[in-house]
Write a structure and sequence with these properties.
Layout: E1 2-6, E2 12-13, E3 19-28, E4 31-39, E5 45-52, E6 59-62, E7 69-76, E8 79-86, E9 89-98, E10 104-112, E11 118-127
Antiparallel strand pairs: 1-3, 1-11, 2-11, 3-4, 4-5, 5-6, 6-7, 7-8, 8-9, 9-10, 10-11
């Protein structure tokens, strides 16, 4: 839980990859809400939200025209896997790993954008 800020110096993005500059995880009852602010491949600001459980099931995403559902699955105490979908088709997958000291997390993501171009990223976030 908490607020995570992108560390661009430690991160690597392909030209087609979106950048999530700030990611906030908050508890909402027995669910988790993930709020993301970033930029698309052209530098345009983006904002989207997801609320659900880390149970591997799809939950709706609001505010992002490139996807409409995302699922998270807990692998272990420090690792999540996620899948992003648009109209039922997988457009991106990834893995989030929390550092042992809890001060940073690494997100590996790969997928295909709306134009059919593949992208990948290795994003490192510092806890705020």
């Amino acid at each position: 839980m908490g607020t995570w800020k992108l560390n661009e110096v430690k991160s690597k993005f392909s030209p087609e990859a979106p950048k999530n500059n700030t990611v906030v995880y908050t508890a909402v009852g027995d669910n988790v809400k993930v709020t993301v602010d970033g930029t698309d491949k052209t530098g345009k600001s983006t904002h989207h939200e997801w609320t659900g459980k880390f149970d591997g099931k799809d939950y709706p995403v609001t505010g992002d025209s490139s996807l409409d559902a995302r699922s998270y699955k807990t692998i272990d105490a420090r690792t999540l896997e996620f899948t992003a979908k648009k109209k039922g088709e997988v457009i991106a997958t990834g893995r989030i790993v929390l550092a042992a000291d809890g001060t940073s997390r690494t997100v590996h993501m790969s997928g295909t954008n709306a134009e059919g171009k593949k992208f990948s990223s290795l994003a490192v976030y510092d806890k705020q």
